[in-house]
Amino acid sequence: MSQKALRWFFPGVALLMFGTFLMALLSQYIPPNFTELLSNVTGTLSFCIMLTLVLIAVRPKAIERRLGLTNMYEVHAWMAMVLPVTLAIHVFIRWSGLENVLTLNLTNTSILGYVGLTSLIIVMLTGIFVLSDTIIKKSKQLMNLKNKANRNFHLWLHRLAIVSIVGIHFHVYNVEYLLDNTPFRLLATVYTVLVLGWYAIYKIRLARLPKYQVIRTHQPSPKIHEIELQPTKGDRMDYQAGQFGFFRFVDSQVSSEAHPFSFASSPTRNQDTIIVMIQEDGDFTSTLANVKEGDQVTIEGPYGDFYPAEVRDSNEPMVLLSGGIGLTPSLSVLREEIAQNSDRRIVFIWGVGYEDQLMFYDQLKDLSNKYPNFSHHIIFSEEEVDGFPHGFVDNDFIHAEGLEEFYQTATWHVCGPPPMLEAAKSLLAENNVTEDQLNIEEFAF
Ligand SMILES: Cc1cc2nc3c(=O)[nH]c(=O)nc-3n(C[C@H](O)[C@H](O)[C@H](O)COP(=O)(O)OP(=O)(O)OC[C@H]3O[C@@H](n4cnc5c(N)ncnc54)[C@H](O)[C@@H]3O)c2cc1C
Fold it and tell me: Which residues are the signal sequence here (predicted)?
């Protein structure tokens, strides 16, 4: 199934649940008029969307591997935008405009509905304005606000989703015309227990993740921290080059909030360890100088499919195109190809801002000298550096470096910050690079 089609997987799950609810409802109760039907439909649909949003939060690996976590979170954000609409219609009808809310005629059903609604509003606000940038990324002011907010605190508030689901589940249970509708109430219970059960198992697994300890820290450039980790006992996590994990420093002087980082190591060459390279970028990453050897870390994952099986198994040319710290998954793939004694054509393109951000240059030069099938192409965007081109990775640069044939013949693996990715996507689309040739890792959700 293509990635585009797979985007409909979760909305499909919500609609499937909704279909079963509707059948159960209509089998025992025919709404007396259209308004009542609309209230039933929107209320039930809202509940199904909420349950599906929790399912996405559990990051089911089978879907994530094909759809990608960034796309999954985007589906989450868009479904979360439909929710206020369906919910508003349901609540407005139940309030008879505003009449019922003004008389404040509280029943068990309405109290539980209010609990569900209030927690849900908090959940939606934290999701839209702090935890995701899908909706707000076009507004600089909102993005500034997002970057200033305490993410950890809002993450906790976002977990009120569970309170909201429990509240709404019992709200459904107390609705008068559903009291005798066993199939409807049974479905509500089965779906709620399944989803919350899955969520609980996911959380228990997180709490029991095996520990790694920091065995080496190093700064290859002033704002980059390279950290090497080794399992405290047992085997290292099985992962593919170019994938990423959520790293939580559980016993360290830095915050224990989980952050996503790509593996920079090669799973074949680094048999027992995992290496990450992290750029100082904000509240958490700027404290990484405090990480010491012996600190304990857990890693949730692996996630991502930057270097898919069909590429690993082929010998087709490959272009690794990175911007800034987006270098990490490309480095992992390059290191893996070298460890596998690959003789495929590998083109390594790296857009760097400033001279002091250049890393591993001697190693790249050595590789180019040693392997005739490898070439590296570096360009600086923010300052002029002797011996290197100046500007962005655009069509002129690709032609100047004699790489235009790879638009047709190679798979492209692109990673970098959002503006660089947008520019790269346009460049590749203009040059007829197909979706099948393209693998993208976004360093943002
Ligand atoms: C799939 C993926 C792979 C990544 N790989 C690397 C890598 O190899 N090296 C590297 O330097 N950076 C990588 N990043 C980026 C890195 O995760 C962020 O720079 C880092 O989490 C920012 O945290 P902060 O608190 O220092 O910055 P802040 O200023 O607080 O945040 C900067 C941005 O990062 C987002 N962010 C902050 N905390 C989290 C979190 N816990 N989870 C998700 N997003 C968060 C914020 O929403 C904001 O947009 C990757 C990101 C993703 C999504």
Answer: none
